[in-house]
Amino acid sequence: MATSSYCATANGAELFTHYASNSRLIGFNSRNRSSKLFLTRTSEFRGVKRCFHVKSVSSEPKQKVQDPVTEEGAESVLSSFAPDAASVASSIRYHAEFTPLFSPERFELPKAFFATAQSVLDSLLINWNATYDFYEKMNLKQAYYLSMEFLQGRALLNAIGNLELTGSYAEALKNLGHNLENVVSQEPDAALGNGGLGRLASCFLDSLATLNYPAWGYGLRYKYGLFKQQITKDGQEELAEDWLELGSPWEIVRNDVSYPIKFYGKVTTGSDGKKYWIGGEDIKAVAYDVPIPGYKTKTTINLRLWSTQVPSADFDLSAFNSGEHTKACEAQANAEKICYILYPGDGSVEGKILRLKQQYTLCSASLQDIIARFERRSGDRIKWEEFPEKVAVQMNDTHPTLCIPELMRILIDLKGLSWKEAWNITKRTVAYTNHTVLPEALEKWSYELMEKLLPRHVEIIQMIDEELVHEIVSKYGSLELDKLEEKLAAMRILENFDIPSSVADLFTKPERLVDADTETVEVSDKVEVVTNDEEDKNEEDDTGKKTSLKPEPGAKDIDKKTTVVPEPAVIPPKMVRMANLCVVGGHAVNGVAEIHSEIVKEEVFNEFYELWPEKFQNKTNGVTPRRWIRFCNPPLSSIITKWTGTEDWVLNTEKLAELQQFVDNEDLQIEWREAKRSNKIKAVSFLKEKTGYSVIPDAMFDIQVKRIHEYKRQLLNIFGIVYRYKKMKEMTAAERKAKYVPRVCIFGGKAFATYVQAKRIVKFITDVGATINHDPEIGDLLKVIFVPDYNVSVAELLIPASDLSEHISTAGMEASGTSNMKFAMNGCIQIGTLDGANVEIREEVGEENFFLFGAQAHEIAGLRKERAEGKFVPDERFEEVKEFVRSGAFGSYNYDDLIGSLEGNEGFGRADYFLVGKDFPSYIECQEKVDEAYRDQKRWTKMSILNTAGSSKFSSDRTIREYAKDIWNIEPVKLP
């Protein structure tokens, strides 16, 4: 074995922390595994040279780098090792010098962040590799969570918190001339998600690692995320997200892990009778891994993200040298753009194709990886019937639906299983989480587009659909024909398709002749009718198509039969219903809140629930208490620990309920208010920096931060603020002060780039804010602020500072929500409708500690019908607000289209579909109760404490335990 050595000065030459305090020789596995570094620590003083001896192992093929946990004697060294501030500082200095991403002249904040993160990753690698190897050797059943979004937030503070190294890193950085908080702020949020779907997935990964469940996450590595939001005088503007411009210290590319992905082409049948998908466009998906550490545990699981590219052989060198540069790079560009953007606009055919490519890439690459792992762990005895006993695949919403036909394709076409075997395995492996109660929001794809892009999968989906039709006919064949057709129309995966030929005879209707005397017309496929009416008529045939019944010119004899030529009819497009495929192909379907799961069973998938009631479950969402209290709200965390007498609440949130017994204690209330105020002071500085607006910390912080969407009703909130402002303007200064408490109304969230109405709402909020915030008569009594580019890091600052949070969606339209849980955990009182998880939060915290308003879910359909019939009478206060906006009080922008959506009785984009006008009176009256409660700070503090105490149910740890037990059938396993 070759050995080399070199010397370095003290400034940054000490290698991480796996050496004891005395001078001795120890080993360390480097991150790239190409060498083992052995450090002789010769001095503690700057300026004295240290010698490093490097033993090369790259010349020793087939030699496996030993796991530190299994290496003799190493486990005891590592398990007893607790790095102090000095050794952490040495590690940071080492990475600043020997893992350089910045020039060596200065040790400024960006460089300090990367060096700090790299030193943390060294610690994570030990547990990460040990976890990976342990799962491999034990051949455990493993859960795989597939999601198009993972809204991770910053990783540094979370990682050192989970490793219990926050104090050591804070002191080390202080000794190096930096503040931990400033270093942490250098990390950009990973642009891998946008809203609650992605944040839920990230909370789940945290809980899976913390609870020691064998599990991985799978997603896509978006280069630009959704977009970076800027707020200008014109409202929201979108820029490309730059989170990867300086690289990410947390991800490790696995160049040895890549899988082929195919699009287009055709399907042929070989001489062996097997199906072959040939030709088309070929790319490859390459794995990037991100460690997910658990809290106070060695378990560090993996988030595997796929990036897309093509082999170098696909670069057309000849074309490039001929000057055809674009043509030469075309294949690479087509592959790379798949992972450019989260949710690319799908208004064009090209946009739809790109979205479908994204979804298939996620599903195919992940399943190939899962299957390769299953085969490797099985060794020489692969038993495919055991696949569901080793693998659980969870589809987070309908985006990963293609897992079902892709798993079938791999098992049948590549592994040689029969249809029956593959279908049985697939149904036992895959499960589906539903995130919407809106039938129009359930994902559908054009059959024509899918057939073009994924021809083999369309064949498999057709076979699944036909099998479903047979099962429905077998179960409900005794129904009247019309009822059976209705059931098939609702349940089939393929929409607007003819009945499969195998059962078509059951639906054949005999042709009926026309009796001229009765003037009754019955139309079949070939229509011969008699008519005594020379005027045009239009009737519907048995398929619902319009048919013209006009006699030929000159026809006099009413008994003469006339061949009728049907008018051209609009043929509805053939679609593939992804949610139906999820329900059919999965063994479990769960909603994400109690009310949502009931709507899923009773409305969205009622026919499926009647057929397979055992499939349907509820799994109310949860959020990790580590990120959402322990790390983002240290003042409150200290108080909870002090009064419960333990820090066990971080792992067992049931302990939070113990705060109830101290709720009337004045000392606790004083500490509680001081903690809230300290968080608000931080938020004041942040708001000034980001928006330029100055606010006072003693005002009520009223916050609505979430994706901008009409059903979430930011419009109701801002209309309530406009009403408040108008009433203030009509009062004297003394009257205003007597009636209203000071409020800072904060909004945050992104409107999808092509969602015009949502972008109008953003523009309106900013215009209202610009007017109110500069009105000297109002002063600090009311401020309206829109925080640009809302993300996890902003949430971690605003949520602990919140007094009141708004969760005001139209009842029955929010599946669950998770921000409502985060606010409750941080002692924030909520105003909201009985929607999503609000229902359960209100039950847990107490009705008197939740401000409730608005129509309930079971009333919504009737209220919309009432509106359509012209019976709705708007409240005069609502009309007053609309007139005030139209008067130009908030600038010259024309808001007719925005306000018009709230008017009329029918029509797309009109008729107030989300019932803003209906709930407005109830909302502003409820806000008056909020003012009254806030004036009594003792009462408000008590309500705040009870919100935190009542949030114990909403930990993602509880949710994950339920998934593991009821859906995945996996057990927690601690590393030795």
From TrEMBL:
E.C. number(s) listed in UniProt: 2.4.1.1
GO molecular function: glycogen phosphorylase activity; pyridoxal phosphate binding
Enzyme class: transferase
Region Disordered, annotated ranges: 525-563
Keywords per UniProt: Allosteric enzyme, Amyloplast, Carbohydrate metabolism, Chloroplast, Glycosyltransferase, Plastid, Pyridoxal phosphate, Transferase, Transit peptide
Composition-biased stretches (Basic and acidic residues): 553-562
Stored Gene3D superfamilies: Glycogen Phosphorylase B
N6-(pyridoxal phosphate)lysine modification, residue list: 822
Gene Ontology annotations of biological process type: glycogen catabolic process
Alphabetized InterPro entries for the sequence: Glycg_phsphrylas, Glyco_trans_35, Pyridoxal_P_attach_site
Acidic residues: bias regions: 531-542
Reaction equation(s) it catalyzes: [(1->4)-alpha-D-glucosyl](n) + phosphate = [(1->4)-alpha-D-glucosyl](n-1) + alpha-D-glucose 1-phosphate
Example of a GO cellular component annotation carried by this entry: amyloplast
Matches recorded under PROSITE patterns: PHOSPHORYLASE
Cofactor entry: pyridoxal 5'-phosphate
Subcellular location, principal: plastid
CDD domains: GT35_Glycogen_Phosphorylase
Subcellular location: Plastid, Amyloplast; Plastid, Chloroplast
Similarity annotation: Belongs to the glycogen phosphorylase family.
Task of the protein: Phosphorylase is an important allosteric enzyme in carbohydrate metabolism. Enzymes from different sources differ in their regulatory mechanisms and in their natural substrates. However, all known phosphorylases share catalytic and structural properties. Allosteric enzyme that catalyzes the rate-limiting step in glycogen catabolism, the phosphorolytic cleavage of glycogen to produce glucose-1-phosphate, and plays a central role in maintaining cellular and organismal glucose homeostasis.
NCBIfam families named among the record's database cross-references: P_ylase (TIGR02093)
Protein's recorded name: Alpha-1,4 glucan phosphorylase
Organism: Nicotiana sylvestris (Wood tobacco)
